[in-house]
Amino acid sequence: xxxxxxxxxxxxxxxxxxxxxxxxxxxxxxxxxxxxxxxxxxxxxxxxxxxxxxxxxxxxxxxxxxxxxxxxxxxxxxxxxxxxxxxxxxxxxxxxxxxxxxxxxxxxxxxxxxxxxxxxxxxxxxxxxxxxxxxxxxxxxxxxxxxxxxxxxxxxxxxxxxxxxxxxxxxxxxxxxxxxxxxxxxxxxxxxxxxxxxxxxxxxxxxxxxxxxxxxxxxxxxx
Length: 223
Description:
The chain is an alpha/beta fold. It has a single domain (7-219), classed as Alpha/Beta hydrolase fold, catalytic domain (Rossmann fold, 3-Layer(aba) Sandwich). It contains five helices and nine strands. Strand 4 and strand 5 form a beta hairpin. It is globular, with a radius of gyration of 16 Å. The relative contact order is 0.15.
């Protein structure tokens, strides 16, 4: 269970959109807080940013060390990377945050999910299964977990959702090949993808922030 309230950055003007941004393994909601200042006025002036903190759980691959994680990683084998119960529990947390934004009066089409690494995996998993149409999914240095259940669980409401996938060609944590497998799978189902690869490790680079800004301006910018 996670009792820590998310970090919320309210815009200077009344919010007409919201971005819920999930951090990666071992980080917390403050990890991507500085990135907001990198974006242009059109995606900060009236956009609320919500940065939740993952629950603290033992992570098997790290010797059972307790840390913030959206799900356990039980095996170095990427085919067994995500534990299903953890993924689904964190999806429930994210759905609750979406419902909070809906309760504040925002339409679902003005709520965007974003995440890095584990956070991006939860954003993809949840967004494609959500019952109402969302604004978009921003998935950085990540992959789609529980792909085997996708066909029967993906919701028609988000069949046309814009998806931004980005990955580093030198990523030693989540290999580019895993991102490519996600890309191929989603493309085969007809999803609207914008894909980028950057010469970086498991991180974010200035060129990527530039491309994210352009995409956000198109998807939710200017109210």
